[in-house]
Amino acid sequence: MVSGMEAFARVGEAIRATTSKLEKTRLLAEYLVGLDDATLPIGAVFFTGRPFADRDQRKLNLGYAVIRDSMIQLGQVDEQALGDAYLRHSDIGDVIEEVLAGRTHPVPTSLADVLQTFIRIYEQRTVRKKTEELRALMDRLSPLAAKYVGKILTGDLRIGLRAGLVEEGIARAFHASAPDVSWASLLTGDLGEVALLARGGRLREARLRLMHPLQFMLASPEEDAAAIMRRVGDEAWVEDKYDGIRGQLHKEGGRIVLYSRDLNEVTAAFPEVVEAASAIPHDLLLDGELLAFRDGRVRPFFELQRRLGRKVVKAELRQEVPVIFTAFDLLYLDGRDLLLEPLRERRRLLEELNLPSPFMLAHLIQAQTPEDLDRIFDDARARHNEGLMVKDPKSVYSPGRRGLAWLKLKKALATLDVVVTGVEVGHGKRKHVLSDYTFAVYDERADRLVNIGKAYSGLTDVEIAKMTEYFKSITLKDYGRFRLVQPEVVLEVAFDAIMESGRHNSGFALRFPRIVRIRTDKTLRDIDTLANVETLHRAFTGERVQLVESAQSQ
Ligand code: AMP
Prior knowledge:
By secondary structure, the protein is an alpha+beta fold. The protein contains 20 helices and 21 strands. Helix 1 (4-17) packs antiparallel against helix 2, helix 1 (4-17) packs across helix 9 and helix 11 (178-188) crosses helix 12. The chain starts with a helix and ends with a helix. Bound molecules: adenosine monophosphate.
């Protein structure tokens, strides 16, 4: 009987082959039921397309280069052929299967073996050692099983099985309710553990645990004040939208941990926040925004950037770029899980805490009419914040959801999060560096990336030099001046307008696109969709019609 990684891959193929969600969950449930207690958690997590559970702080961040090099060694192909194969398939898993085709006599490999290799890859310090570990694993697998290892490493199985469906599969396997499974998964951040709880009929024992990142609640974009007021009703809570990085602070006894939006730990980069938190006489979980702040005002994002990614922050940098934690939510207090309390109650408890500096509370005010919102928007901009967050005071905290209980109003400042798909050498003094980036958004309907523009870097020379090296390492095909790259670098781009255009395969083009920043805190999963672009395009066209009208009336 087929077992281990081979069985996993075959079930993956069966799931991929059907478009019926019901059939996908049935196949998954059948597979999960057959796993023993030690393997069940691994199988459930692997089917989310990740090597480790969300809660796990180990991230492989393997990058294309390691997979490419291990394939080159194993499949005896060159870089060029591999790049070509990628361009044909646009899926690393499929490339691996093609390159290894014809290899027979795989060695039986359990899911636990694969997980152990992932852990060793994580622990190895050098790219060479990581590549060796991966090559040794791939060497033992059939082309099909290797394909699925590749898929897990890139973080997306691409078999039409979104995280929600894995939860449904677990529910179906163990006769539990799907919402109970999802909730337990949000609280624990570990679908593997949830699968075991579900099997034991113990889902209700799942508790919000501190010291692991909880998925953040997100906001939906809305361009229009009147539409926002219609959505939220007559009581709208309006907070400034701060332009820093999202932060989640956990304090349990003397231990304090800070997580960023991508659920990575960033504690070391913000020592003053940690020091102040240690004086708070409570266990708690705060949600807020980390900001650079000096002389009573929020500083631009690029100043905060100097603090990001630091393992040690010297006293000098602390002085040059002081930071604050602007709290807007309280999710746990002294043993009490507050997620299902209304925002009104969470904010009341938050205010009662009287947090010490450098903690601050988000600026909060009520709005009754669209005109109120417009006025508050201008005030927020005067406070150097980028827009507004409008929240329903009756709403619960929904981790990981981009619902309608939180709406963000950014207006004309719209930016898009895009992924770089190609890079080109620049002109003049930039003719030796890769400074021109072609970028794409995600077309959900066709499940592919579509290009929408090209930006001549708004980055500093140092950043461009660093990115040039990086882009070289993730090149899929080198055409000389132009290189196609593995789509993984996320940019936030600003622009003046969106136009319909045949220049790019999205059918749209941006006017005067410029890079606002590299979003190291975002991944391919976070980029904007073509549907968002269409919405923005409609908003922009509306605006242009207005401009034409006002020009005519003059
Ligand atoms: P975006 O990154 O454009 O999707 O906007 C959502 C982000 O705005 C959140 O992830 C937070 O980092 C940030 N943000 C700033 N101020 C607030 C606020 N008052 N409430 C919630 N999120 C906020």
